[in-house]
Protein 1
Amino acid sequence: MRKTKWQGWGPAEQAEQHYLVEPRTLAGGGDIRHVSEFLRASGWRDKSKPGGPLAMESPDRAVRISYDPHIQPGGWTIHGTARGHQAEWWAVLGRQAPVEIIAGLTDALTQPRSAHAPNVWAPLEEQHWQTRPEGRHYTATSPDGAAWMHYRQDGHGNALWWTGAKDRQGNGWTAQFAPTTPLHLVQAFSTALASPEPAMRPRGRVPHSAQIRTTSVSVLPSQLSAWQHARNAAARASTWARNSVRSPRPRTTPRPHAASGAFRTRR
């Protein structure tokens, strides 16, 4: 384990010990606010009941996201309703799926779809995952062998995405996507899945696994707050920009009947 000391601490704050965990696929679930606060800043409605599981709904009510760790197997459920040419779809992800990877998918739900055709495998290949065809199926495995992504196709041509990560002790998580899940969302997930960036976890929240590498860092509470604030501010700014484009432009010239400098008196 490496140890790093961050400079620039203020005298009024006490630094807290955190760990950068690699690979991120085995970092454990993390703080779900990483997901929920970004969605809230993007205009999503918090439908959670007091003391109940997390429940979020998109502004157009087309997508619902829930997280419940108290049921078996527990974890994340994302459900999209049928709209236009898009059929109903769903995704289920285990509770130990890192929030940084979950956010790859959920952040994409708040953003416009790219005009480019999605390629689920491209982000994995860029990070040197091993890919191999198996008849009508396709598999990608991370260089360390801990994470995978499978594409399965049944006799009717229906596709199913199955992915996850496990260490040698069997600890980890799995996720599944419905055949109708939009491919750009699956690609957003695979991009986050393959990212080499470590995940940060506080002391006491690092999984016990021989396959992870940790770097100890001392972090100020204000730094953690600033990082989250910057992430949420970016979500609010992006949402505002999209809404501004969709709303009518304000009138910049006077109406024909409104003479400049004239006032009409109501009788």
Protein 2
Amino acid sequence: MREHFISLPEDVYCHLLAVAETEGVTPADWIAAHLSSDVDQQRPLAVLLSDLIGSINSQTETPSSYEKTVFGEAIASKLAKQGIRRP
């Protein structure tokens, strides 16, 4: 693989080096991990959400009861810690 070099101001490089070290990676690996390889992120949000429009019917009543599951209860517990309660 070919290597390329970039110039960074000293303060930027020091910050990059410190952050990478705290995560146990090299500066190059840290940059690579934070670069987006997802082309969809360059598309407008309206385009990304267009397939979801109409997927939930907001005209129906919410059920008065729900089936308890381990997963659902774990989510409810996490939300409760943030002050969000189930109606």
Protein 3
Amino acid sequence: MTYDLELADRLRERLASEADVTERRMFGGLAFLVAGHLAVSASGQGGLLVRCDASDQEALERDPRVGPFVMRGRPMTGWVHADVDGSVDDADLDGWLDHGLAFARSLPPR
């Protein structure tokens, strides 16, 4: 599976005004980075990966569209996966982007 091109376009549109955000293909998806740190990604497995503070993860996962990001059978702390399709509105997408950007910006530059 490849990443969702429509989602990638929505992410590009929403992040266009963020001067510190760069785009890079990574892990079969399209990642958006801040100072070298991955913030969000249109996942190669579908949906949206969001980097977050581990203390925010449980609250994010209360949304029925959001669950832990699982890699090689193991849930990854500090990452969530959101099932994103055309029905997800801009407000929800912005909320997930805000989490990813805020966490990436809290890290020292690479």
Protein 4
Amino acid sequence: MTTYYDDRSVRVTSAAIRVDGRTYPLADFTEVWHRRSARSWRVLGRRGALGVALVSPVVFAVIGIAVGLSLDTSLTVTIAIVGGSVLVGLAVGPLADLLFEHLDRSYARGSRTMELWVRWRGRPVRLLATDDALRFGQIYRALQRAVEQRQPVTPR
């Protein structure tokens, strides 16, 4: 028996798929498909907030530099304003790494709920529903490989 995917709640083997403790033999499947829900506006809003958090310190630094150079003040005050603005822009570096990581994870998870369906013993059964697009893709592809391996290959 070959294992194609295995995590805490889903295991796909060449004989069956186990989801949350319930086992479905692949021999009883006649069809496998997936569905996607509508996009989650909450997830998209979070991504937008992360983008604003990434850009806003740089925008404020540029505005500070422009204001510092346009004011008719002494050289010391201008250097202080421009220097402070540059420091604000540089402070973004460590924070940006953290924010980019969160943004990257949000794209890996996806913005939709994905469902895995099979026709099992003649009736449709939803095996899995998850918001994690990366995990769903791995499980779906593992199930496809397992089903493909069960079908006999006809020689050409």
